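Per your request, structure below.
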């Protein structure tokens, strides 16, 4: 029990008062700058934050696309291998194959690869590779990156609230989380990448912002980038930039000013566009199970939407009152 919680035994927190005092002192020193230096400094300060969230958004989108590509390849590797190139998954291996034909000759299942034709061999290969992926993921996290375990959402909430967990949003955690997520999802475990996507997004934001002195010496400004990165992580997981901003504002951040909201939306939008540009599934969709609507709604349906909205509001209000009465 002690070993599993050892990484949270530091209990260091951010002194927001001291951090704000340092920021005011830095702003006070800037007042004595005059002429061209003052104009350049103000212009740089105005642009720097947007440049940081731009870089963070692009890297989050690229990282998510790479994880999706590797995950799909590993998932197909449980079934067979491409004779034209081992690095191709089944879709790319059979890209020019006619779907009306019985089978793709370029894709070789594991029983045929071993020179036999038996369903048991295919089943055994599927189970063995899936087990190997899951075991490798568990060993990597246990031995090399314990901080990469779990979704990371509770820890992100604690960090945004002022707690310090050293290494939780570092570069090594990002690498092992990305590799472990691809292995875990490809193994067939009943897990998703939505929660880990937020953690990986925050890791990218932390690593990038640490290269800028303005964010390296200010925990409050660092928190703004982490909030924007969390929004981008949700955006690439669900293909919803606005949903990512709402999630970061309502569920993660304890302080979310208006400027952070706009930067979070910009970061989430850039991450989504980057993911769309890479198109990891070659379907034009941001996520694997993206919903599409080919029929327009009818006017009479508004009545039922209104009824659902009223019921949700009344039910939510009653639950809040009951919760307040019970806790009191």
């Amino acid at each position: 029990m002690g070993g599993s919680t050892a990484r949270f035994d530091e209990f260091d927190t951010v002194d927001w008062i001291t951090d704000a005092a340092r920021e005011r002192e830095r702003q006070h020193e800037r007042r004595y700058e005059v002429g061209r230096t003052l104009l350049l400094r103000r212009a740089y300060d105005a642009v720097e934050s947007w440049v940081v969230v731009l870089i963070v958004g692009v890297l989050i989108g690229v990282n998510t696309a790479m994880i999706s590509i590797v995950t799909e390849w590993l998932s197909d590797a449980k079934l067979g291998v491409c004779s034209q190139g081992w690095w191709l998954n089944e879709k790319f291996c059979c890209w020019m194959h006619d779907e009306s034909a019985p089978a793709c000759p370029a894709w070789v299942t594991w029983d045929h690869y071993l020179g036999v034709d038996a369903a048991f061999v295919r089943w055994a290969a599927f189970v063995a590779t899936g087990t190997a992926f899951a075991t490798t993921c568990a060993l990597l996290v246990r031995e090399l990156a314990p901080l990469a375990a779990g979704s990371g959402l509770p820890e992100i909430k604690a960090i945004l609230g002022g707690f310090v967990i050293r290494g939780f949003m570092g570069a090594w955690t990002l690498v092992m989380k990305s590799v472990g997520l691809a292995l875990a999802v490809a193994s067939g475990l009943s897990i998703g990448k939505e929660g880990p996507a937020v953690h990986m997004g925050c890791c990218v934001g932390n690593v990038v912002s640490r290269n800028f002195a303005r964010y390296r010496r200010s925990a409050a400004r660092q928190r703004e980038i982490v909030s924007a990165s969390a929004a981008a992580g949700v955006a690439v997981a669900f293909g919803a930039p606005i949903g990512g901003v709402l999630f970061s504002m309502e569920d993660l951040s304890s302080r979310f000013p208006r400027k952070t909201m706009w930067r979070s939306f910009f970061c989430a939008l850039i991450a989504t566009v980057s993911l769309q540009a890479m198109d990891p599934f070659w379907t034009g969709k941001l996520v694997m199970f993206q919903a599409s609507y080919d029929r327009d709604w009818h006017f009479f349906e508004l009545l039922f939407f209104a009824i659902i909205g009223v019921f949700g509001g009344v039910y939510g209000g009653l639950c809040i009152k009951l919760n307040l009465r019970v806790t009191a």
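The radius of gyration is 24 Å.

Regards,
D.
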